[in-house]
Amino acid sequence: MPETKAIERRIVLANLDQPGYTPDIECYLKHGGYASLRKAAGMKPEEIVNEVKASQLRGRGGAGFACGVKWGFIRADEKKPIYLICNADESEPGTFKDRQIIDRDPHQLVEGMIISCFAVRAKLAYIYIRGEFAGGARILQKALDEARRNNFLGKNILGTDYSLEIYIHRGAGAYICGEETGLIESLEGKRAYPRIKPPYFPAVLGLYQCPTIVNNVETLCNAVHILRMGGAEYAKIGRPNNTGTRIVCVSGHVNKPGYYEIENGAWTLGQIVNDLAGGVRGGKKIKAIIPGGSSAKVLRMGEVIKLRQKQPDGSMAEKEMGILDIPYDFDNLQAAGTMSGSGAIIVMDETTDMVKAMNNINAFYAHESCGQCTPCREGSLWLQKITDRIVRGGGRASDPGLLINVADNIAGRTICAMGEATAWPVQSFVAKFRDEFEKACEKK
Amino acid sequence: MFTFMSMPPFSTLDGQVAEIVARYPVSKRSAAMPVLHLIQETYGFISGESIEWAANKLELQPINLLELVTFYPMYRQKPVGKYHIKLCRTLSCALNGGEALCEHVLKKLNVKLNETTPDGRFTVSHVECIASCGTAPVAQVNEDFHEGLTPQKMDELIAKSV
To answer: Over the Cα atoms of chain A, what is R_g?
Structure first.
């Protein structure tokens, strides 16, 4: 069994667990902080964008969109103001990585944001932080004040002609604000109803109808390291199209739940769960794993995954494997019919009542639907009502089929991806644990 | 519990509102959420009068603020206890004894979910995933996180909250 340290490769999390490491700027500077910003100050914005493109960095918020491509959407001759927003609304069930950075290494995020703002020529930026992180918002505010006092932020940063302001905006408990266009509406002082895409791609029509880049906390932190090591060098970490490291959050029935930073694609789901997170508690067996936040399709222990993988000669080949053998990265989880999403791995042991777990997940999406699109607003509530009655012993024989039917009529019929986030867990839970659902429906 | 007697007039918030508005040079309406947070932190809840006052300050209609109060779960139109215990309900906490913990707290304080104890000390609610799944089950008491909770730790927390 490899040691935890051998599996982990800490880049973003390099410092925050070091003894004596504090969130103040002196400590950050002592650890080489703001060196990447100094480097950026001597570069042209498009050179930074090119480094990020060369790094092949993909967004760490959930969708895995290529960061450099997103930044590249901003036109060089853009006349409107350009905004950047840090999405710190960390709310996907199972995810707790951004909170570690915000609370204990806030300057890494601030530095990453300043570099990113400079790259896309944004002069005003916001950190949209979920309302429950009141303490985190105070820590970030202190970090911003310190950065301003050190001329890393504000007018004429480091003697250049570039000026930038970053402000914090606190949410108020709505999951939908993690969706970038919902977030933008919220930042405009409205209900967080996601916008229709097209035309509202944030990079074209974002905050105040101006080009806006929205990036996750971990993504922005990676900008610091890409500038430090160079994009091409960064791209050597991980696998092609799945470069760099990834912070995974393991929770549920494991011995050592927690956050771990690993090289993308270098380790399998099984190595993460068993070697990093210490395996399932009490010597029990794994029953199911949700590999990328509760919106991701569940994986059932024992199912055979047919993974289409690119071979060294470039051809595609299908390989059969168990769920624990799936290499953990964006493309392989997608090939396995699910997603790595926000990197949140929830492990359920053999004693888990899958119908109850499903009901718990359904209650979440029913609570969080913004109510804008009928299929999601009504469907999410019905899904919860159905699993709730099954759990209470009032299930009907037709209920498993009905759950699938309702879920199928949500996915693809909503303005934002919340429809899929609601439907995918139901579709996969019922399909993969159908016998449990049927048995539960017989219970009176 | 907060009482009307001890409430400072809205005008005491003028300076803070001006500071908030300055953070949104493009649109005053963007200040709506932080102003609502400020009102709730000051008065314990968001009253109809405070909405009218804030709407006037931000050059909005009261409905523009009321629709936020009714949309975002953290805003409340009624006061809560001095200590608002928010227990995470979501999956990773539920897999780690979150439900039993909630039952324990409700029984201990002899209240129902979303109710306040008669002495006004505690309100118990659920909250959805608060990004602390690695230390489940978790709760927030007012703004503070309490992680890796057990019924015993919860008892200690309640005893300390006076």
So the answer is: 22
